[in-house]
Amino acid sequence: xxxxxxxxxxxxxxxxxxxxxxxxxxxxxxxxxxxxxxxxxxxxxxxxxxxxxxxxxxxxxxxxxxxxxxxxxxxxxxxxxxxxxxxxxxxxxxxxxxxxxxxxxxxxxxxxxxxxxxxxxxxxxxxxxxxxxxxxxxxxxxxxxxxxxxxxxxxxxxxxxxxxxxxxxxxxxxxxxxxxxxxxxxxxxxxxxxxxxxxxxxxxxxxxxxxxxxxxxxxxxxxxxxxxxxxxxxxxxxxxxxxxxxxxxxxxxxxxxxxxxxxxxxx
Length: 267
Description:
By secondary structure, the chain is α+β, with helices and mostly antiparallel strands. About 20% of the residues lie in helices and about 40% in strands.
């Protein structure tokens, strides 16, 4: 580099510029080769973080919840919620998806629940039900009542919330038994702030239930200062009746088979 620069002092302008350009080109080539060698070494030593990040991102885009390729979404459907967990006790996870459909009725768009099992590394449709996830406008002035799906302790739980001044919340858990999906337990709550709260719980495996109601008193600022229990009763379910099936179930509209009661109760 020194000799080349020195000689350029005795050259004409054109030859000097040409020599400088050649020197710059040679320098750029040497630097580029060095960087390329470093990148190859890094890749060999497992230090190519860019490749690792891109690989992880691509894998995340291809896989859905549960580590398998995403279950196919029917044309025109929207995915509302999904959950993954073991529902049949075989140690292998299932996937449950709640879809918003294109079918519109009096209470908005109908929802469809689909249960998938793993077959040869893919999600295969196992069961379909319409009804256990309420339609899009079934929540009154609160709007869409659907909250979420969860899989816990081998049961599929579906949560809803709605109402206006009087509000309500539902939790229904289903489990797989002898080829059927049956309601296992339910909790229904109704309340108006600073007025009352009422709760019904049902355990279908044991045939038991519980109903309680409290009245509430608040300050002018809406702070609750008193809650008085006004109703407390145990409920006995008729265990000779089969628990409601998932595909026949409508939250809040399925009658409870109670013993020794003329008053209708609902899951």
